[in-house]
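Q: I'm writing up a methods section and want to include an example of the input and output format. Could you take the sequence below and give the corresponding predicted structure tokens, formatted cleanly so I can copy it straight into the document?
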Amino acid sequence: MSESLAILLVLLVAGGALVALLHWLAHIDQRRAEMTEEEYQENRAREAGLLGNGLTALDGILRPQVKQAIEYRRDAKQGQLPGAKQDGERLIDPENP
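A: Here is the clean output for your methods example:
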């Protein structure tokens, strides 16, 4: 009895997944047609940003020098390098306004 219930449950889950896949495939063109050009461009830019950030993080893990270089560049942009002649834009410290 329990084996038949397990088989029935597996078949229901597989059938539901198949129906969901067919529904998604049937409506994929409709979603693309509803998207305006501006929405499409925003979506592409957001995906590229996520991919670039992920690859940068992976590169920072594989090569620690890259992570240090990024931190150095960020500090230089904010004017926080030791011995800097010009003050750059500094972050506001909430403890010392």
